[in-house]
């Protein structure tokens, strides 16, 4: 149940969003949220920002899709740690052009939160020159799955099929409507339950693929002090995408994991209707190095917010 809010245009906007969220938001109205986590669990927290002109362009997505996508990106970070989301905080910077679309944005945020089995606990809203959505996710896990646990001899797996997001983005940047893979770009799915299955199955390290398979593999390899050897021909690719495109495609939000033994990929696919593919192994080599057979190392840099 939410606490009553005082008068004012800002609070009128919040009230409209709360009506749209319904029971997808709880406890809003106090100065801070109160969160209970299971005894023995660790608190797992992540924050992610979506900024107009940097992370999305208004003509590409509906307001609802923009809200959904912003929340899903932050929820994916908690998924990568094999944590269960317990609540979400939303900070909105709203330009005049977006004020009459706040309820649509709120609906998208609510969709993502509801799909991941959690609720909106509160947040902040201010006027801004451009739309920005900053999502903080609070989660818990008894044994969080880090990036730093990979060991030489581990196998490397990836969920889903990669490259659809990159293909859709290339079409949009070229001024063409994204067709076949638009849903992968507009409606990514945080792999909450999938990550918990992988952790229970013995995964040693994990990362969600936000900057691209090649780039995020390097992050995992650096954190673990190991080298990853990947077979490009094994990378599961979206229709019409080759291994190079799949390795470079960012904002996939699939999971890259390492594990000391073979996983039951058939059981995983039956349960989640999603492929789980062994693509390589961990070796004792140069810490942070990643080699994908068939893909030039120069094409593995991935997205960098501070790159030119």
3D structure, described in words:
The structure is a single chain. With about 300 residues, the chain is α+β, with helices and mostly antiparallel strands. The protein is built from 9 helices and 10 strands. It has helices at about 10-20, 65-80, 100-115, 165-175, 180-185, 190-200, 215-225, 245-250, 265-270, and strands at about 40-50, 85-95, 120-125, 130-140, 155-160, 205-210, 225-230, 255-260, 275-285, 290-295. The chain has a 6-stranded mixed β-sheet with strand order 6-8-5-9-7-10. The mean pLDDT is about 90.
Provide the number of structural domains. Answer: 2
Low-confidence segments: none
Could you tell me the strand content as a percent range?
A: 15-25%
N-to-C order of helices and strands: HEHEHEEEHHHEHEHEHEE
CATH architecture of the largest domain: Alpha-Beta Complex
Q: Going by CATH, what is the homologous superfamily of the largest domain?
A: PurM-like C-terminal domain
CA radius of gyration: 20 Å
List the strand order in the largest sheet: 6-8-5-9-7-10
Largest beta-sheet details: 6 strands, mixed
Measured as a percent range, the helix fraction is 25-40%
DSSP E strands, number: 10
Shape: globular
Q: How many helical stretches?
A: 9
Instruction: Quote the CATH topology of the largest domain.
Output: Phosphoribosyl-aminoimidazole Synthetase, Chain A, domain 2
């Amino acid at each position: 149940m939410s606490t009553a809010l005082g008068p004012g245009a800002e609070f009128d906007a919040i009230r409209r969003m709360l009506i749209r969220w319904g029971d997808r938001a709880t406890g809003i109205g106090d100065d801070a949220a109160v969160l209970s986590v299971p005894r023995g669990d660790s608190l797992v927290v992540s924050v992610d920002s979506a900024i107009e002109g940097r992370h999305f362009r208004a003509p590409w997505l509906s307001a609802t899709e923009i809200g959904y996508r912003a929340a899903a990106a932050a929820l994916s970070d908690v998924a990568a740690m094999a944590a269960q989301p317990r609540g979400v905080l939303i900070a909105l910077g709203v330009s005049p052009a977006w004020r009459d679309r706040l309820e649509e944005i709120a609906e998208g945020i609510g969709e993502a939160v509801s799909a991941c089995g959690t609720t909106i606990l509160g947040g902040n809203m201010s006027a801004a020159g451009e739309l920005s959505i900053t999502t903080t996710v609070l989660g818990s896990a008894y044994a969080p799955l880090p990036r730093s646990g990979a060991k030489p001899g581990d196998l490397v797996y990836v969920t889903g099929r990669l490259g659809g997001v990159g293909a859709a983005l290339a079409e949009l940047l070229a001024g063409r409507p994204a067709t076949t893979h638009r849903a992968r770009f507009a409606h990514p799915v945080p792999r909450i339950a999938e990550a918990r299955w992988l952790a229970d199955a013995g995964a040693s390290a994990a990362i969600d693929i936000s900057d691209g398979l090649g780039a995020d593999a390097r992050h995992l390899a650096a954190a673990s002090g190991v080298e990853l050897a990947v077979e490009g021909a094994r990378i599961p690719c979206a229709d019409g995408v080759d291994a190079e495109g799949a390795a470079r495609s960012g904002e996939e939000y699939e999971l890259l994991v390492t594990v000391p033994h073979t996983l039951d990929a058939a059981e995983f696919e039956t349960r989640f209707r999603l492929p789980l593919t062994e693509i390589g192994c961990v070796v004792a080599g140069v810490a942070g190095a990643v080699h994908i057979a068939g893909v030039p190392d120069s094409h593995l840099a991935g997205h960098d917010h501070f790159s030119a």
